[in-house]
């Protein structure tokens, strides 16, 4: 493996982060608003190729395209019917980007709906996914629940799938993924609470858990959540965050943002519970900005995750293959396009995309 402290690409990444931070500090709100409608910007992709296998994933002439900017902290991307939906958490909104049309607001507010200002940094919703019927399912974050749109319409019925565990309110559901049996797996760190930590006075649960909603797909539209069925599967990660199944659903991957920057692998049992927790990769020592966050897999089983420096690419065995170096801190990624070879990247103030060589795994796997 390359020496990360002297790798020129990683030094470039550190310098880019520093420059961009100064730029954001100097930009006025008016400049930021104007940037949201700016034309796409395409530049050569910067890649730290750690393993030769990365050549089969990232084309030599790949380009990074910024398709939208001017936001604050974008998250939760999901490709739906030719458009990319994503959250801008501080503005409490879900946005929709459509090729040739740009960005529009799909839902605002998307999370906290109180009558007084939230008082925290992240009042909006967070991760999003689709079920087998294409219903948009959302981690409510500051709303402290998980909900599903019954049709792709902001005025549609919203069905709450989970909001409490053993009568206590969830912390702030962060990211989520469906299994082919219709159950839904959810991470629940405290980042959507006002203080974003375990000392928040509104935090009711002692644990920052990973949960399973056994019959999420089958829940009737508008019906209350089956609170007694919610299963706590993982309770020993301080900050569980991104979550994704391997192709075939043999394994569930969950990453942890802090204090250790780690990616975990769990074997999925026939009943949907988990066994054999295994440390897949530890990026704690990596000094570049960023932490484990949202992630997806491709059809070959490679993992693409927010992490130090940008998008960290791991083999199914946990070998660090490459890092896509990004100019902003990455929050989450999603596959898009008809062939699922376009990786969309939510990074701080902007949304980017890059064409890769291996197709992404479908967001909903089949049995």
Supply database-style keywords:
367 residues, 5-stranded antiparallel beta sheet
Provide an overview of this structure.
- It is a single chain.
- It contains two helices and 28 strands.
- It is mostly beta strands.
- It has one domain: TolB, C-terminal domain (Neuraminidase).
- It has a five-stranded antiparallel β-sheet, with no helix packed on it.
- It is globular.
- Mean pLDDT is 92; it is low at 1-6 and 22-35.
| CATH homology group | TolB, C-terminal domain
**Approximate strand percentage:** 35-45%
Strand order of the largest sheet: 1-3-28-27-26
Helical content class: under 10%
Distance between the termini: 37 Å
Order of helices and strands: HHEEEEEEEEEEEEEEEEEEEEEEEEEEEE
* Tally of structural domains: 1
Task: Let me know the largest β-sheet.
Answer: 5 strands, antiparallel
- Secondary-structure arrangement, i.e. CATH architecture: 6 Propeller
**What would you report as the Rg, rounded to the nearest angstrom?**
19 Å
Integer average pLDDT: 92
Shape: globular
- Detail the poorly predicted runs: 1-6, 22-35
Look at the structure and give the CATH class. Mainly Beta
The total of beta strands comes to 28
Structural class: mainly beta
Look up the CATH topology: Neuraminidase
Total helical elements: 2
């Amino acid at each position: 493996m390359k020496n990360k402290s002297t790798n020129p690409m990683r030094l470039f990444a550190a310098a880019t982060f520093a420059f961009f931070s100064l730029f954001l500090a100097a930009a006025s709100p008016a400049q930021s608003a104007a940037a949201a409608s700016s034309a796409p910007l395409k530049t050569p992709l910067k890649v730290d190729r750690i393993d030769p296998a990365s050549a089969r994933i990232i084309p030599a002439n790949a380009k990074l395209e910024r398709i939208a900017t001017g936001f604050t902290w974008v998250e939760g991307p999901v490709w739906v019917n030719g458009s990319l939906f994503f959250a801008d958490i501080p503005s409490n909104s879900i946005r929709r980007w459509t090729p040739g049309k740009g960005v529009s607001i799909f839902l605002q507010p998307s999370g906290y709906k109180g009558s007084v200002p939230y008082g925290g940094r992240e009042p909006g919703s967070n991760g999003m996914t689709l079920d087998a019927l294409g219903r948009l399912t959302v981690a409510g974050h500051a709303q402290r629940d998980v909900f599903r749109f019954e049709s792709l319409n902001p005025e549609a019925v919203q069905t709450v799938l989970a909001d409490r565990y053993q009568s206590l309110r969830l912390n702030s559901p962060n990211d989520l993924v469906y299994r082919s049996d219709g159950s839904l797996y959810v991470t629940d760190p405290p980042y959507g609470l006002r203080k974003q930590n375990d000392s928040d006075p509104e935090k009711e649960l002692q644990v920052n858990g990973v949960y399973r909603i056994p019959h999420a797909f089958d829940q009737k539209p508008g019906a209350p959540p089956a609170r007694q069925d919610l299963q706590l599967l993982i309770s020993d990660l301080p900050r569980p965050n991104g979550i994704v199944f391997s192709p075939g659903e043999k394994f569930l991957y969950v990453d942890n943002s802090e204090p250790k920057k780690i990616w975990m692998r769990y074997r999925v049992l026939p009943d949907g519970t988990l066994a054999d927790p295994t440390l897949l990769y530890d990026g704690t020592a990596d000094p570049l900005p960023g932490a484990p966050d949202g992630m997806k897999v491709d059809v070959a089983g490679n993992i693409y995750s927010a992490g130090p420096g940008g998008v960290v690419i791991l083999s199914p065995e946990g070998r660090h293959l490459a890092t896509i170096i990004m100019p902003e801190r990455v929050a989450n990624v999603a596959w898009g396009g008809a062939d699922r070879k376009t990786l969309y990247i939510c990074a701080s103030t902007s949304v980017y995309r890059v064409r890769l060589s291996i197709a992404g795994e479908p967001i909903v796997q089949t049995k």
